[in-house]
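Morning!

This is the sequence you dropped in the shared folder:
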Amino acid sequence: MLGDNLLTGSLPVEFSELHNLSALELYQNRFSGPIPPELGQLRNLDNHYYFPKEGFTYQDLVEAIGNFSAGAVIGKGACGIVYKAVMTDGKMIAVK
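The structure's back. Tokens below.
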């Protein structure tokens, strides 16, 4: 769990070498750049952890939810927090 650390820079592609990784929480950080596609190929990630579709970057989502602001929270549960995001095209989506 790397959440709530205000980490910066890009997500390391080396995370994809953690084959037994079952959860990857990245909230409250300031990562930039695209999510390495190799992370989406980790087979042991719990099915609650998804990566954005092609064309989205982590930074796009961070901006769309106001850097994980409390005002963007629309739900909380055992598996994490759900945020309301407004994308640049005006679409509203839920981000977990």
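Headline: The CA atoms of residues 40 and 50 lie 7 Å apart.

More detail when I'm at my desk.
O.
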